């Protein structure tokens, strides 16, 4: 079930961009910590401690700021400069997460922007790649 | 005529499973340290994931190979020996080694352990391959990506060692194991640290003229907005020579031997290797699937390099370009 | 006080016209050198001197009382490469420097001693001892090896001589592709021997005009000139017994004199940069990026 070629409509993006980003980032941080606690996300916070992240969904106009406090992920203020910024359209993020597309392919095509600390970017990319979804309910959505 | 084995990369457990599920005959992987040539943060296997991967592969009849293919550094050479010990303990089907001292250790300590000479071992001729066989009982050698098809054939004709060649993946234009460009710029090379143009030295800078890619401050490339970009591997940057600027050494491109499969079958290569332990499970799945189908079709005399297969591999390639590399010497 | 160091001339890595090569070695045989390495290490297409000519030149140099060593091609690919290799190894007189495991195989089969060249990837004592068993008398560490590592290995292996690359553009990589031919948009098989026009290689700069690398046919070198002159006093304690000077188009006599004077314990020359084919570098020896220039630890007058 490939992710369709969709873009978040600009009108919706304008509205989304004006909403406070705090609730979505709370949800994401909670989910990441849950996945880590269950051993699905094999995160080594030693590699990420104190680092600031920003995930920017370009077509939705949303930026999610969070950090690692050394043992778990926590939401950050929007004005914290990120050590690593990942930016792409919503559909491309979905393809990435479902392993329909290879992050390098998206990056080579300039559809995924990675700014900041390149090694941190690689660490995060490798972390996402090493998640074994096989034992989770999400498995049936995965392309691989 | 037995088909060559399809040898696929795994930088993580999901990649390993993707290779196994999509038709690999062997998967190769490394440990989480500088004993392997893809020593990147967050990549590779620890004891637990390695054991699970080996179990998964074995249950589906797929062999596992552990790459310990950097050169043991004197100050800490015991770490490389421990990696060999670990491989023997894990029960992998073979280890892939480059360092002659380490090959010596492995062959003495574990006479039953099957040894492959890594591409980093730089054996580009049969005399070198046969030396490794005579000294260590190496059973397979991976040839550097510098030989023509005729030269590969010549090696195969003059050795009993199985010969493995690269079939797909990012192209290294230099003879493997003999490139120090990365350490000249950063202090770290594939031979010493298992990295090439390491990420910790990479900086992307968006500026007035586009995006600059720097390695330890050295400008490797500059991309116009919208221009497809590549990872700033030193040899694939744009430089100036006698006033003209361009890819002085190599374009960002990938090797793809699909059009040559029947020739590789004819000359008797024992295995075809896919590059890319640093790539994602999505890449491993797609490349493995395409090459599995192509090999099976080529064996039956069918259409092995159909446009869809070529397009799939093209999309996964660096710079979306593919080449036959040295096999047909486009630059000869 | 003089230093216990030999001074030797490495193999010519560039492609020079026959006459220039002959003149160069005629001159070099009178320099204060203990040993000269001869032979084509880089490209099989370079035939201004054929294998037989190099063997004859080695005999001429040996006749002057200096040791001549024949260096093998570093990247051996074709049957004709192996044919030339066998001829070189079976020269009957001169010691051979092996730059490929294939060469080691032939030497070992013939029971001949050899020099383990810098392209053999000897990164540890175990590997060095293995080559020692196979017949190596002397080894040249990979050019990227830090001085501290050279010391660890050399001190643990006193029965084999350690010779380090001490001056010249660094040989960094080998390919089957010819980058000089590529630059001139020529096929490698029809390269028109354009390397002859670049007696110190062809400098490759970044798009900010920083001299970075040098193209030398199938070999990629550093644009910078590696120099261990400032470190020379510490080298014997690092287990180093010989310093290798790499041939360059100009000023090499002066470079050799400067090293010889330093070995003799004379006040070092103030600045060798005017004699170098590129900016001076020495980072590798200090465990850093090869392109870096570290100031000497000792204060210079």
Which structural category fits the helices and strands of chain A?
alpha+beta
User: How are the strands of the biggest sheet of chain B laid out side by side?
Assistant: 1-2-3-4-5-6-7-15
Percent of sequence in beta strands of chain B:
15-25%
**For the residues shown, what is the average pLDDT of chain A?**
83
Contiguous helical run count of chain B: 11
Class based on secondary structure composition and strand pairing of chain B: alpha/beta
Q: Mind explaining what this structure looks like?
A:
The complex is a heterotrimer of chains A (144), B (332) and C (301). Chain A has a single domain (10-141), classed as SCP2 sterol-binding domain (Nonspecific Lipid-transfer Protein, Chain A). Helix content of chain A is 38%, strand content 17%. Chain A has helices spanning 10-18, 22-37, 45-48, 90-97, 103-108, 118-129; strands at 52-57, 62-68, 73-75, 84-88, 113-116. In chain A, a hairpin with a 4-residue loop joins strand 1 and strand 2. The longest helix of chain A has 16 residues, at 22-37. Chain A is globular and about 40 Å long. Chain B is α/β, with parallel strands linked by helices and 332 residues long. Chain B folds into 2 domains: 5-171 and 253-328, Aldolase class I (TIM Barrel, Alpha-Beta Barrel); 181-246, no CATH class. Helix content of chain B is 33%, strand content 22%. In chain B, helix 1 packs parallel to helix 2 (47-59). Chain B is globular and about 60 Å long. Chain C starts with 5 loop residues before the first strand and ends in a 20-residue tail after the last strand. The model of chain C has no long low-confidence stretch (mean pLDDT 95). Chains in contact: A-B, B-C. At the B-C interface, helix 4, helix 5, strand 8, helix 7 and strand 11 of B face helix 3, helix 4, helix 5, helix 6 and strand 7 of C. Strand 12 of chain B pairs antiparallel with strand 8 (202-205) of chain C, so a sheet runs across the interface.
């Amino acid at each position: 079930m490939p992710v369709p070629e969709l873009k978040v409509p600009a009108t919706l993006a304008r509205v989304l961009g004006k909403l406070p980003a705090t609730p979505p980032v709370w949800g994401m941080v909670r989910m990441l910590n849950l996945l880590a606690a269950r051993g699905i996300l094999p995160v080594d916070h030693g590699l990420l401690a104190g680092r600031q992240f920003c995930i920017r969904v370009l077509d939705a106009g949303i930026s999610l700021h969070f950090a690692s406090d050394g043992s778990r992920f926590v939401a950050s203020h929007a004005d914290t400069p990120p050590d690593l910024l990942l930016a792409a359209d919503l559909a491309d993020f979905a393809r990435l997460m479902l392993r329909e597309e290879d992050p390098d392919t998206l990056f080579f095509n300039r559809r995924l922007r990675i700014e900041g600390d390149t090694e941190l970017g690689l660490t995060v990319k490798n972390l996402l790649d090493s998640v074994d979804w096989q034992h989770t309910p999400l498995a049936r959505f995965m392309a691989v | 005529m037995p088909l060559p084995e399809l040898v696929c990369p795994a930088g993580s457990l999901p990649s390993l499973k993707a290779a196994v599920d999509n038709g690999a005959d062997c998967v190769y992987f490394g440990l989480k340290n500088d004993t392997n040539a893809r020593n990147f943060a967050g990549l590779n296997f620890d004891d637990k994931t390695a054991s699970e991967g080996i179990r998964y592969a074995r249950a589906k009849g797929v062999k596992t190979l552990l790459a310990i293919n950097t050169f043991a550094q004197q100050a800490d050479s015991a770490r490389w020996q421990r990696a060999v010990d670990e491989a023997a303990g894990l029960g992998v089907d073979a280890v892939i080694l480059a360092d002659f001292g380490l090959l010596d250790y492995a062959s003495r300590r574990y006479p039953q352990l099957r040894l492959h000479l890594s591409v980093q071992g730089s054996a580009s001729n049969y005399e070198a391959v046969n030396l490794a066989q005579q000294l260590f009982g190496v059973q397979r050698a991976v040839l550097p990506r510098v030989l023509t098809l005729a030269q590969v054939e010549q090696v195969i004709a003059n050795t009993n060692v199985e010969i493995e060649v690269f079939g797909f993946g990012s192209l290294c234009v230099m003879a493997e194991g003999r490139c120090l460009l990365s350490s000249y710029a950063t202090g770290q090379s594939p031979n010493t640290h298992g990295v090439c143009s390491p990420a910790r030295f990479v900086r992307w800078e968006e500026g007035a003229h586009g995006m600059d890619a720097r390695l330890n401050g050295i400008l490797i490339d500059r991309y116009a907005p919208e221009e497809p970009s590549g990872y700033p591997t030193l040899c694939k940057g744009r430089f100036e020579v006698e006033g003209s600027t361009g890819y002085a050494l190599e374009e960002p491109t990938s090797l793809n031997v699909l059009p040559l499969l029947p020739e590789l079958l004819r000359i008797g290569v024992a295995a075809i290797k896919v590059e890319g332990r640093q790539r994602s499970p999505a890449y491993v799945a797609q490349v493995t699937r395409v090459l599995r189908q192509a090999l099976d079709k080529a064996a039956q005399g069918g259409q092995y390099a159909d446009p869809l297969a070529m397009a799939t591999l093209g999309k996964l390639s660096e710079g979306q370009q593919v080449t036959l590399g040295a096999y047909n010497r486009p630059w000869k | 006080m003089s230093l216990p160091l030999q001074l030797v001339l490495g193999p010519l890595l560039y492609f020079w016209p026959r006459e220039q090569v002959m003149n160069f070695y005629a001159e070099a045989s009178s320099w204060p050198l203990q040993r000269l390495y001869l032979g084509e290490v880089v490209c099989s297409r370079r035939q201004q001197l054929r294998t037989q000519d190099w063997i004859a030149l080695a005999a001429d140099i040996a006749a002057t009382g200096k040791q001549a060593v024949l260096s093998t091609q570093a990247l051996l690919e074709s049957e004709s490469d192996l044919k030339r290799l066998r001829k070189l190894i079976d020269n009957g007189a001169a010691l051979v420097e092996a730059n490929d495991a294939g060469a080691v195989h032939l030497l070992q089969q013939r029971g001949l001693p050899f020099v383990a060249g810098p392209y053999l990837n000897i990164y540890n004592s175990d590997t060095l001892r293995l080559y020692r068993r196979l017949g190596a008398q002397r080894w040249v560490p990979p050019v990227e090896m830090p001085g501290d590592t050279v010391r660890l290995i050399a001190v643990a292996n006193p029965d084999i001589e350690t010779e380090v690359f001490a001056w010249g553009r660094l040989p960094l990589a080998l390919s089957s592709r010819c980058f000089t031919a590529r630059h001139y948009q020529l096929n490698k098989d029809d390269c028109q021997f354009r390397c002859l026009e670049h007696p110190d290689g062809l400098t490759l700069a970044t798009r900010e005009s920083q001299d970075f690398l040098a193209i030398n046919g199938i070999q990629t070198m550093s644009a910078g000139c590696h120099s261990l002159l400032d470190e020379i006093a510490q080298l014997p304690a690092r287990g180093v017994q010989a310093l290798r000077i790499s041939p360059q188009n100009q000023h090499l006599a002066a470079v050799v004199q400067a090293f010889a004077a330093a070995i003799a314990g004379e006040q070092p020359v103030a600045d060798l940069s005017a004699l170098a084919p590129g900016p001076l570098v020495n980072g590798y020896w200090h465990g850093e990026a090869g392109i870096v220039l570290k100031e000497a630890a000792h204060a210079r007058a």
